[in-house]
Each structure stands twice: as structure tokens, then as C-alpha cells.
Amino acid sequence: MIVAAALVGLPVGTYLTRLIWRVPQKEVEHPSADHCTACWVELERRDRIPVISWVLLRRRCRRCGAGIPAWYSAVELGTAIVFGCTAARFGLTAALPAYLVVGASMVALSVIDVQRRLLPNRIIYPTGFVAGPLLVIAALIEREPLRIAGALGGGAATFAAFFLLHFIKPNGMAFGDVRLSFLVGMAVGWLAPSLVPVALLAAFMSSAVFGLAYGVATGRGLKATIPFGPFLAAGAELTILLSMSIRSPWSVG
Predict the structure, then answer these.
(1) In whole angstroms, what is the distance from residue 195 CA to residue 219 CA?
(2) Distances (CA, A) of 47 to 30, 51, 62, 80, 227
(3) One-character DSSP codes across 15-76
(4) What angle do CA 175, 103, 144 make, to 5 degrees?
(5) In whole angstroms, what is the distance from residue 168 CA to residue 123 CA?
(6) Which of 16, 82, 175, 234 could cross-link with 103 by S-S, CB 3.0 to 4.6 Å?
């Protein structure tokens, strides 16, 4: 099942590369067609095989010879890894579809935030509208309705905390991070509300360490700025995937 999930993750990763390119560009024409971003010629089927086509084409468009960015294949492989790890964590359970949706969204949002310092509503909102009902259905199927309260409470708590940070220092916490925090709190809170602080702590600590290293490497020191979305997504995903073995320091008993 892990292998099957990973194989499904490859074409999903291909679809995510379209979102990553098109959503920030607000490109809406021919949404189902893959095309070269240099010559705009639609790709042939043989050139759409995840990862393999990139290697066989030697990282260049068959028509115009323009370079194909390596992050395309990185997203495809990354999504496959996320899907495989998610299947390993949840198995064939009712919660698996919801967390596959969340994982795919976190990959796309992280790449967009790195490239453009942007967390688009056109990805965050649909993710919530799809993952939320799937988590509700999973809780009902598993006969654990309290998980719904945990998801809503986790989402509301993280949103309120991040909204306060944004209100205090708008330049330090963008509102896209506030919106993303609700998804993080919802997804992690469904598993256990006590894991939400763990995910946030992992996000803040990893961003602080990386930010300090980046500031030293670039000579900008504490003035260096980095996107927070990828760290928030990574903290959430690691907590979700390792939740069976994590004991929250805030848990009781």
C-alpha cells in the first residue's frame, strides 16, 4: 500500500507543479494541459511522465530547448515520499484521504512560499473545504466524534494565536501564515489537541535555527527574513507522521 500511495503521489506531484506555476500567475486558460513555460507549446504524452521524462529530455524542452527547472521533479518526488509516509502512518483507514490532501497542499504551499513569499487563498481555502469534511467523515466512521471537536479547537486556537501575532507585528507574521495555521491546527488537532503545540514549537524552532544560519551565511544577521510557511507545513507534517511515537509535554497522564 505504501508503494501504491507513492506511485499515486508522482502524478499528483505533476499536478501540483501546475498549481505552483499557474496560481501565482493567475493563469486560468487550458488548466488541464501541460505546456512549456518558455514556448507555451503543449507537451506530448511521452514528455509528461513524472521524473522520467525530465531525465530522458536531459532537463530541456523537446521543442525549444529551454531548461526545465529541477524543482518540477523535486515536487513530484517529494509528493511521492509524503504520500508513501502518510500511507505508512495511517494505513487503509478513513483518515488517510484527508491527510493525503493535507500533505499535497503543504508541498504546494511550501514551494510557492519559497519562490514568491506567498500563500495563495486559492490553495488554502479549497484544502480546508475538502480536508475538513473528510476529517468529519473519518471521525464518524471511526466512531470518535470528539476528534471533530479537537480539529475545530486546534484550528481555532492556532488561528487566534497567529492572528494575535499578526496584529502585534504585521511585518513579522503575514496573514497567509495566519490562514495556513488554521489548516495546521485542524489537521494536527484531529489526532490529538495536545500535539498542536508540538507542531508549532517544531515550526518556530526550525525557522529560528535556519533563519540564524541564513543570516550568518548571507551577512544580513538578524535582518535576514525567510518565509515561515514551509516551516509551519514541515512542523505539521512531521508531527502528523510521527504522532504515534510523540508524547506531548503538554499532555496529561
Answers:
(1) 36
(2) 18, 10, 8, 19, 32
(3) HHHHHHHHHHHT--SSTT--B-TTT-PBPPGGG-STTHHHHHTTTB-TTT-PBPPHHHHHHH
(4) 95
(5) 26
(6) 82
pTM of the model: 0.89
Per cent of the chain over pLDDT 90 is: 63
Query: In this structure, what C-alpha cell is assigned to residue 62?
Result: 523537446
In whole angstroms, give the CA distance from residue 108 to residue 60: 23
The length of the chain, given as a count of residues? 253
Q: How far apart are CA 253 and CA 247, in angstroms?
A: 11
82 within 8 A of 10, measured Cβ to Cβ = no
Angle at CA 80, nearest 5°, toward 54 and 98?
140
Q: What is the pLDDT of residues 118-155, one digit of tens each?
A: 999 999 999 999 999 999 999 999 999 999 999 999 99
**CA nearest to 163, candidates 152, 176, 151:** 176
**Residues 137/112, Cβ–Cβ less than 8 Å:** no
The DSSP call for residue 100 is: H
| Residue 174 to residue 165: CA distance in whole angstroms | 9
What distance in Å separates the CA atoms of residue 172 and residue 164, rounded to the nearest whole number?
Answer: 11
